[in-house]
Sequence to fold (247 residues):
Amino acid sequence: MFNIAICDNNKQDTVKMRTIVKSYMDAKFIPYQIYVFKSGEELLEFQGKLDLIFLDIAMDGINGIQAGKKLHEINRNVKIVYTTSYKQYCIQAVNNVHAFAYLEKPVTNVMAEKQLDEVMRYIQEEREKAETVKFDTIVITQEGELENKIKNFEVKDIIYFEYINRKIKIKLREEEYFFSDKMNSLAAKMQRHNFEICHQCYLVNLIHVKKIKAYQVYLDNNEKLPVSQKKSADFRKKLNKFIQDCI
Fold:
């Protein structure tokens, strides 16, 4: 399922882009969901996960470039295609926001479909080479019994691990799973995937960290995790290095 957003304060442009996207996705038999937003503020309030955003630059309030920067902080994997009548803003958008591409208005079917081809191919390649890890999770059967089941997880989908009641919880955006392990051995296994311990009970995926303030880590799912005083300096150092490597 591809989640696609169109954010534009011009109703006519929004309707046209939505029609183009719908026609393209239907013709390719690709499952999708389209979300429409009239402002950068509305887009930033959305809590779901987006794969692709067609984002107008010249909007009242939070403009497209400002919204794009915030979105990139929340989800570094989202693909942003800017749409604008002002070509001089396009280079700024690509350079400052790491936008995937831009389209000049009025957007034509040919222009948009060519860009959709590129985006879909790129996303599909990303998904095919996505890093995965497997854990022997504990699940409850329909009969109410506990059963071990080996399950694969995409690394980018794991927000954090939590040690709780002698088990480790895998926290995803919408789901939770449990398995047996020790936090130190898990941390050693996941370090190459950019997971770091912020507290003796938490191992966090740095890609989901929005900021660290005082002794709390703010995540892109609106949760906050504690940072122990003992680990604070080392965790901040590793987070800064991770951010620099991503720029």
